Amino acid sequence: MRPAPERRREILDTAAEVFAAQGYDATTVRRIADAAGLLAGSLYYHFDSKESMLDEILASFLRELWGRYDAVLAAGLDPRQTIEALVTESFREIDRHRAAVAIFQKESRHLQELPRFGYLADAQHRFEEAWLGTLERGVAAGVFRADLDVRLTYRFVRDTVWVAASWYRPGGQHSPEEIARQYLSMVLEGIAFITRT
Amino acid sequence: MRPAPERRREILDTAAEVFAAQGYDATTVRRIADAAGLLAGSLYYHFDSKESMLDEILASFLRELWGRYDAVLAAGLDPRQTIEALVTESFREIDRHRAAVAIFQKESRHLQELPRFGYLADAQHRFEEAWLGTLERGVAAGVFRADLDVRLTYRFVRDTVWVAASWYRPGGQHSPEEIARQYLSMVLEGIAFITRT
Amino acid sequence: MRPAPERRREILDTAAEVFAAQGYDATTVRRIADAAGLLAGSLYYHFDSKESMLDEILASFLRELWGRYDAVLAAGLDPRQTIEALVTESFREIDRHRAAVAIFQKESRHLQELPRFGYLADAQHRFEEAWLGTLERGVAAGVFRADLDVRLTYRFVRDTVWVAASWYRPGGQHSPEEIARQYLSMVLEGIAFITRT
Amino acid sequence: MRPAPERRREILDTAAEVFAAQGYDATTVRRIADAAGLLAGSLYYHFDSKESMLDEILASFLRELWGRYDAVLAAGLDPRQTIEALVTESFREIDRHRAAVAIFQKESRHLQELPRFGYLADAQHRFEEAWLGTLERGVAAGVFRADLDVRLTYRFVRDTVWVAASWYRPGGQHSPEEIARQYLSMVLEGIAFITRT
DNA sequence: AATGAATGAGGATTCATTCAT
DNA sequence: AATGAATGAATCCTCATTCAT
């Protein structure tokens, strides 16, 4: 009588994959249905609308992500450790929900206009708070460079991480932790070869 | 009395702006027409289709960009100077054609499937050649770190630059050259504060 | 200041050719304009509308045709001679205005619904009068077979003639008179070989 | 509960009727939908496009027709019997699928240009083979007149038969077989009254 | 006479969604 | 849970027509 939650998840994962590949607007419910092995109309037994599928994908991704982020932020780490932990958690999240991250990345900006997706704007603000705050504390503590525009730095770090969702494939040759390590090394120390004493 | 091409450009710039803001698929021709001050049907006096507007926007952006890139690559600079010049030209391009860059960034992946937009895939390959090649030469020459995955570095630098199109606003407080300088500084030397001797 | 009548004719002939080839509805004014060597909008200097081009083509064809038919019908010929003359005049008309005849043939039926083209229905009635009347007189006079349904015979003869417009090409190997002769021979004597005494 | 194909056929028959009455190009899908009792958009649940409706109408008509023709041609009849049988089958086909025949007659010529309707040209060639071949054998056998241009005769017979679709109404006073008999009598023996010994 | 740019109505088609079964 | 048929609104696009130049 009640919809099986596993089927929901299955369909939702399929939908996320298709949304990520084609873009939300370019995706028809029929394509999702085809990929999930049922007819378009049948999707409506499980979901209210195409939009609510998207909503569920994004909301559950953010819920999980903030779970991790909040744990990091509450751990009392120093700024550099915090940045390292946030980056690592981000790559783990990309590993777990690549499609959702890609959708978030691509569609966030224009979805924010819709009341239903107002929480995407909130998420952006919380991101900014978390990352920018950490960077500022780091600059104050002398562990991050003071000669750079912090906002620019913030965007740099943020984009650096999330854009990876557009090319990352789970099960590739690097684990998320390894990718995180390399990214962090680049971001923190730069790619130029320098003799350090 | 006035030469026609100006109107074309006008409309095309408008279209690019709307595509960048809403996404290509989510943009209706009516919206473009509204923004350009004519009726939807009238667009078809100037253009064959919505798709051919997109085509023209992307193709002319890439044409211009490659003009700049080729000049840089032909200038006989060393690897580090080449990277610096490429990044600077990229930010200048973002400054000139922010919308086109944003569209390229967002829609490239799924447009490549369409035969008409096959040249987008070609462009990716040429990018890779130019950037990756330069990085490899730099590693060989000892100016870039050898302990990083070069492909990862390539994606890092490339994405880091282009994603800027999604938040950059021309006429902001930093000139494209200033942004390029800060970006390069971050990418090359890292954001961590380090005592260098 | 006043439109040159020759240009009108030129355009009208072009239009007739295109209408005949593609069908009236499937023909765009742009195609006519292309074929006539001007821009679509410029047609409206010469004509009120696409429909009025069609009107002029059909009306002038019928005007000319009835001139010939009336002459035949007034000539006091016997039924067989009348049929022969009508057929011959018809093929001459096809020779002169193939396109107009083809259009008349193809579009007549559904154009009749439009008030403006009511005269097409009138023409059909006058045709019927002329041909059917002649056939009936011929049957009464014993020169045409009495064992056939006269209406069927009428349609047979009428169609036989006009359908030729769909394949006839002026300047082919047979003159219109020669084609008329052969058609008449078929219609009157049949295609079966029979020993007549 | 009811098998779907019936609805398809229903709609297709309606469409054929409208196409025949108004011409393919002049027919809007809305008119078909109105006549079939659903909304325009709903047609696309059953058919890909307006064009594919036309395609299906014409293709299935030709399929059936060639079934009958092939049976006749394989029956080993003499030329005169063959012509008689082909004509009779043609009128039966007109009786069964008047609309399809009328469409074929009216639209065939310009549809042939489209790749999708290339089979219409093929059909013309097979017609020519069948009819013209039979006539030539008849001339050689001395049962058809040798003093007429055979190609002209072919067109004469062919058109004479098919044009009937434009005025024929099923359920009229003559059965298709009766019409065939009269037509054959006219075509074979002519309409002129002649004393035969 | 003709052009170039535009209009506006209408056309085919798509697609999210509904609902009886 | 899912299907099959349909809805209706919206979308891209076409095209006859207009009109200032």
TrEMBL record, chains A, B, C, D:
InterPro entries: Homeodomain-like_sf (IPR009057), HTH-type_TetR-like_transc_reg (IPR050109), HTH_TetR (IPR001647), KstR2_TetR_C (IPR041490), Tet_transcr_reg_TetR-rel_C_sf (IPR036271). The keyword NAD does not apply. GO terms for molecular function: DNA-binding transcription factor activity; transcription cis-regulatory region binding. Transmembrane segments: none annotated. Signal peptide: none annotated. Coiled coil: none annotated. Keywords: DNA-binding, Repressor, Transcription, Transcription regulation. The keyword Transcription regulation applies. Residues 28-47 bind DNA. It holds the Pfam family TetR_N. Residues 5-65 form the HTH tetR-type domain. This is TetR family transcriptional regulator. It comes from Streptomyces vietnamensis.
